[in-house]
Amino acid sequence: LSFSSMFVILSKHKEASRLGYVTVGGLFVMLFSFPQASLHVSLDSLMLIALMGLFITPFSRLLIGMGTRYIIPAEVGLLVIGESILAPLWGWWWLKEVPHQSTFMGGAIILSALVLNSMIALKASRI
């Protein structure tokens, strides 16, 4: 709900600071999750957590926020679903975890919806 609301707010206020929204959102997540966090992790895991929390996740959220300047919130939400499609493929590629057949079928349905949505939008913009 919060993520979708952010798309709508950023689409309406195109001049708003995307970095500010990502920073405040990250602080709220930290405040709400810290009491439940387990601080017993290895140094290797801590390095991966730091990489994800300080660089990869904020950078991806910043790019998503920048996308709201150019496309409507519904399309941003559809594109974010692409992350769910790619996650099993990255796991398959890097960790040799073979996804179930239903994972591929679900991904194909989502990709088909994205392609169909883009084709309809492109056709509508040409009329």
Q: Which features characterize this protein?
A:
127 residues; mainly alpha; flat
Summary, kept brief:
This protein is an all-alpha fold and 127 residues long. 80% of the residues lie in helices and 0% in strands.
Describe the structure.
The protein has 127 residues and is mostly helical. It has helices at residues 2-12, 18-33, 43-67, 73-95, 101-126. It is built from five helices and no strands. The longest helix has 26 residues, at 101-126. The protein is flat and about 60 Å long.
Strand segment tally: 0
Please report the number of helical segments: 5
Q: What's the mean pLDDT score? A: 84
CA radius of gyration: 18 Å
Low-confidence stretches: none
Q: What's the main sheet like?
A: none
Oligomer: single chain
Summing up helix and strand content along with how strands pair, one would put the structural category as: mainly alpha
Secondary-structure element sequence?
A: HHHHH
What fraction strand? under 5%
What shape does the CA trace take? flat
Helix content: over 70%
